[in-house]
Amino acid sequence: MKSRTREGGSRFLLGVLIVGVPLLLALLGPLFAGEPGPRAASFTAGGGHWLGTDFVGRDVWRQVLLGGRSVVLVALAATVLAYVVALPLGLASALTHRGWLEELLMRPLDVLLAVPSLLMILLVAAVFTPGAVGLALLVALVNIPDAARIVRATAAEAAARPAVEALRMQGESWWRTAVGYVGRSATRTLAADAGVRFTGVLYLVATAAFLGVGVEPDAADWAVMVDRNRTGLFVQPWAVVVPALLIVALTMGGNLLVDSALDHRKRRQK
Amino acid sequence: MNTESVAEIDGLRVEVGGRAIVDGVRLRVRPGTVTALVGASGSGKTTTGLALLGEYPHGARVTGEVRTPEGLVGYVPQHPGAVLNPVRRVGALLWDIARTQVRHLPRRERGEAARERVLEALAAAQLPDGAEMLTRYPHQLSGGQQQRVVLAQALLLGARVVVADEPTTGQDAVTKRHVVERFAALRRTGIAVVLLSHDLDVVRALADEVLVMREGKVVESGPAARLWSAPRHPWTAALLAADGAVEPVEPDDGEGEVVLRTSPFTARHGRTTVLRAPALTLRTGESLAVVGRSGSGKTTLARCLAGLHRHHDGTLLLDGSPLPRSLRARGREQLAAVQYVFQDARAAFDEHRQVLDQVARTAVRLRGLDRGAALAEAVSTLAGLGLTEEVVRRRPGRLSGGELQRAALARALLARPRVLICDEITSGLDTVTRRGLLDALGTLRRERGELCLVLITHDLDTAALTSRIAVLDAGETVEEGSTRTVLTGPQHPFTRALLGKEAAVGVTPSGR
């Protein structure tokens, strides 16, 4: 048991470390970026530039410092927002005994589910040219159907338990039954889903940025950096590798953290 | 060391969180005998039994010596369905084991040899028509057949010791007799059976050696015959005494005020009609037992009354005013008036919150008490049922089944119900705990004269506690009358069968 605790602990530390680097860079990076220096030649290494220069001759390190905030914030906001809508929808449809209400809540989402998310984003982007906030809303919207279905499926199992009937027998409020018991029982599955979903959202936000939705074509943004600098990949790889690694670290570390947090809770409950 | 024994436990002590759940247990298992561990739930039977398999609770500190035979020890859990992979056929489950044993044969002969071994094991596990079982999935088997498939797995592995955990719990009389025959046959093949049970009928019919456990210690052990005729320890005596039948109570005079009245109704599950209930009239101070085998519709009847099953066409009248069919449409007072205690107490509690809080919530929600007053009342009600505050401050996972069932009863009682419906609340409990719970219900009837009690049960001992009995078979009420009349002079053949078969377990030859 001791060794397992230590293993869980080290996984937690590893997760913190892996997720901490990109997160700190993203959130605090802009504070240390400083003033833009004069532009140098494109795709050069050295010359006072730590990680070389990018496709228009800007310092890559400075771009890295500046470029995380938009990706991370948009992805986080989109994930949270998706759940804010999906949780009440899923819980309500799992706990109701009225078939029509469940249909009313879930059926429209199925329609949304049928449209490929990237296509949807590109379509809307073509009409509205959204900014960062618009992108977050859009990505949240395409994630709501999946998230709501998972919430409902997980909650439906918990909602069918005698414990819920017993709570109703006690005249317990909807809120306490839904959130206090059903929601809580579903936490493990939902946390695992949130980890995966965050990864998916990050991918979607990065892809959207990569395709030029929600950000300027030369913006300081990790995803945009990967896209714009890939022409110089063999001349000056850092401009692509560093932002790409940071995005990977963010998703991987996030999943590790969620896993070890769940393990910890499970052990405590035993 | 006794050379005869195939497995031994010596001075076993298992500690979890500083509390010893098994302490100084000594056990000898000899081939071709049945060793029974009896005791109340939470007495350490299962922990001792699992120690033979080398399994201990999570984070346990274990001292002592456990010697098991070469080859594996078989384990037949209480719910055998849970250990069979639901997506694989029985044949595949057994084949996996058999295949590893025929590796030494030439490739061509392997298939035939494995098949032979599988069928042999099934026959030894009392499934003579085994060939036809092989293509079925576990869920297509009855509980008894699942039990035998698990047994066949153990035998195929060459187990010389089989640990059976509560093999008869929650079964009706007919099924119980089959289980007894099954293990008796196993014993004849020279396999040692360790029986963990609180069902004394089964222990009496099977055991050669009995160990009586209490709070982790063996209080008495010896040959079954001696133990039964002359128990030395007072606890053994109490355990045996609690096993007797209850005297039927005097029938009520039917003078109580009518609390709940129903029209005759039929209840459906989807499109299938599962119950045709007659008009029911429940009066204050009365108690009604609804008796029947599993699947007879008795739980559905109870759930209809409680508002948990709303697909029926009856009208319920509480004090003459209509009571909504669904729980969700019932108001506070209506909810409080009709309370229901669930069969599976563990599933009916939220595993994340401490029991006391959950019990007290009834008084907060249904009677508008503040939290402090509700907690105080919960503590005193629970204490009245024999649960100390220290116990109920824990989470449900750390309470035994009997303790949880009493807590569930307290939870319903805090609503001050007029009608209390108890669904099979004594099934799955050992004799002492069951007697304790029945006594508590008896006390309740005396102390709360206005309470109307409805007991759903398949156990006629429990039914004897009530004043009126309704017998259900396949969704129809076949007999209804005062308890004394029904138990002493049953009119319907089904009731007679139920009574006759109840007696049958006791007379099964012990095979010694």
Automatic annotation (TrEMBL), chain A:
Tagged with keyword Signal: no
Domain ABC transmembrane type-1 as annotated: residue spans: 68-258
Membrane-spanning segments: 12-33, 71-91, 111-142, 194-215, 235-258
InterPro entries, sorted: BP-dependent_transpt_permease, MetI-like, MetI-like_sf
Pfam families, A to Z: BPD_transp_1
Topology relative to the membrane: Multi-pass membrane protein
Places the protein is found: Cell membrane
Keywords assigned: Cell membrane, Membrane, Transmembrane, Transmembrane helix, Transport
Alphabetized CDD domains for the sequence: TM_PBP2
Stated family: Belongs to the binding-protein-dependent transport system permease family.
UniProt protein name: ABC transporter permease
Organism: Streptomyces luteolus
TrEMBL record, chain B:
Keyword Chaperone: no
SUPFAM superfamilies: P-loop containing nucleoside triphosphate hydrolases
Gene Ontology MF terms: ATP binding
Xref: Gene3D superfamilies: P-loop containing nucleotide triphosphate hydrolases
Pfam families: ABC_tran, oligo_HPY
Residue ranges occupied by any ABC transporter domain in the UniProt entry: 1-240, 260-499
Entry keywords, A to Z: ATP-binding, Nucleotide-binding, Transport
InterPro entries in alphabetical order: AAA+_ATPase, ABC_transp_ATP-bind, ABC_transporter-like_ATP-bd, ABC_transporter-like_CS, Oligopep_ABC_C, P-loop_NTPase
Family that this chain belongs to: Belongs to the ABC transporter superfamily.
Annotated PANTHER family: D,D-DIPEPTIDE TRANSPORT ATP-BINDING PROTEIN DDPF-RELATED, TRANSPORT ATP-BINDING PROTEIN
Protein name (database record): ATP-binding cassette domain-containing protein
Native organism: Streptomyces luteolus
Lineage: Bacteria, Bacillati, Actinomycetota, Actinomycetes, Kitasatosporales
